[in-house]
Specification:
With 329 residues, the protein is mostly helical. Among the domains are: 10-142, Calponin-like domain (Actin-binding Protein, T-fimbrin, domain 1, Orthogonal Bundle), CATH 1.10.418; 274-323. It contains twelve helices and no strands. The protein has helices at 16-27, 41-50, 67-83, 92-95, 100-116, 127-131, 137-166, 170-228, 237-246, 254-272, 274-305, 309-323. It is elongated and about 110 Å long. The N and C termini lie far apart (108 Å). Residues 143-157 have a biased composition (Low complexity). Residues 132-197 are annotated as: Disordered. It is found in: Cytoplasm, Cytoskeleton, Phragmoplast; Cytoplasm, Cytoskeleton, Spindle.
């Protein structure tokens, strides 16, 4: 079973129309948009179709309108996930907003999972009967049946209208010619309706993806800003240059040039301060040498005090012999 699948899996390339056709045929509904299933009730029944009897359908609310009722449906779905040991994470906060992209991705995963259970076959499953025990389930079934009946009536009315038009006499044919511009003018609107809906849906998906990308890069910039506010590095020229670019209001490229000037100015100051640092190092080295000389003298004095009087006289005589070239020892 496909509980966790990658984002590049073929399941996430299934089209919106195929997803809607699968939902409507499995549950005998008449959804027009994938985001119409954002309440979570459809997901619960799809899982009930894949695992009959696992979902407590009496807790599912098909009449959920606010986020609180929708969250209750997703809690039922999560409990069933836990029973079936499905590790898929449900992003409830995004789904209840009704965003097309988030709902499409989750429904694509649902289709992949349900297809992996018994090859997607649901034997002896009556979705209308199972929906009757839900809150608002009967009303949902009635609306779906009415919409399906109206769709069938509209499709059957077209052949009758064309048949009656052929049986008209010459006067009715003249009237038909007069009314022909009206018919042709209304056809593009009826034919262009689904095309416009698809275009609007595509624009919504692009907007959702752009919002996700914007939030991602905004979070990155916020992390950089917080890092620059650390007291240990806040006074650094590099940090000041980064903040200069972050807080720039103009988009003419001057902020980058000023930031580069700030970094180069900080490097020049460091080079000017380097001779002072060398002098301090030399001073510390000379002080270290003095301490070593004093320590050696103290060590020699301590050694002299420990010698006997005879050894001291021999050392003095050695010194006299070595210092005077006229004396021979």
């Amino acid at each position: 079973m496909a509980t966790n699948i990658g984002i590049m899996d073929s399941a996430y390339f299934v089209g919106r129309s195929e997803i809607l056709a699968w939902i409507n045929s499995t549950l005998q509904l008449n959804l027009c948009k994938v985001e119409d299933a954002c309440s979570g009730a459809v997901h619960c029944q799809l899982l009930d179709a894949a695992h009959p009897g696992m979902v407590p359908m009496h807790k599912v609310n098909f009449d959920a309108k606010n986020e609180y009722d929708m969250i209750q449906n997703y809690k039922v779905l999560q409990d069933v996930f836990n029973k079936l040991k499905i590790t898929k994470h449900i992003e409830v906060s995004k789904l209840v907003k009704g965003r097309p992209l988030d709902n499409l991705e989750f429904m694509q995963w649902m289709k992949r999972y349900c297809d992996s259970v018994n090859s997607g076959l649901h034997h002896n499953y009556n979705p209308v009967e199972r929906r009757e025990v839900c809150k608002g389930g009967k009303e949902t079934s009635k609306k779906s049946a009415q919409s399906q009946a109206s769709t069938k009536a509209s499709t059957t009315a077209r052949p009758h209208s064309s048949h009656n038009a052929r049986r008209n006499d010459g006067s009715s044919a003249a009237n038909a010619r007069n009314q022909a511009p009206k018919v042709t003018s209304t056809r593009p609107s009826s034919a262009g309706g689904p095309a416009y809906d698809e275009q609007i849906t595509g624009l919504k998906l692009s907007v959702d993806s752009l919002e996700k990308e914007r939030d991602f890069y905004f979070a990155k910039l916020r992390d950089i800003e917080m890092l620059c506010q650390i007291p240990e590095i806040e006074q650094s020229p590099v940090v000041a240059a980064i903040q200069k670019i972050l807080y720039a209001t103009d988009d003419d490229g001057t902020a980058v040039a000023e930031a580069q000037a700030m970094i180069s100015g900080g490097q020049n100051e460091a080079e000017q301060l380097s001779p002072i640092a060398e002098a301090s190092e030399e001073k510390s080295c000379s002080e270290t040498r003095k301490r070593k000389i004093i320590a050696n003298l103290d060590f020699d004095a301590a050694g002299t005090t420990n010698l006997s009087p005879r050894q001291r006289l021999s050392d003095v005589s050695d010194v006299h012999c070595s210092e005077s070239p006229l004396m021979t020892c």
